[in-house]
Amino acid sequence: MVEVTLWGSLAATAxxxxxxxxxxKDIRELFRKLAEQYPGLxxxxxxxxxxxxxxTIYRDTWSKKLPEGAEIFLLPRLAxx
Length: 81
Prior knowledge:
- The chain is α+β, with helices and mostly antiparallel strands and 81 residues long.
- Helices cover 27% and strands 27% of the residues.
- It is built from three helices and five strands, in the order E-H-E-H-H-E-E-E.
- The protein has a five-stranded mixed sheet.
- The longest helix has 11 residues, at 27-37.
- It starts with a strand and ends in a 5-residue tail after the last strand.
- The mean pLDDT is 90.
């Protein structure tokens, strides 16, 4: 079980929950379970979400393991220039 902080619009899409606990071993499983639990997150996940684990941002490494007790933040991807 990991505790995940949903930042910005992600929290609003998850029913106002800024922190959720999910049983997941890696980022891919985390996204799948979040989409099942909060269907409104699925379009945002599909667009791209950055995952910060203990201060390191992972963008396309979906097999990255989620260590127990890690600080995990999900952030919507920023666009623009």
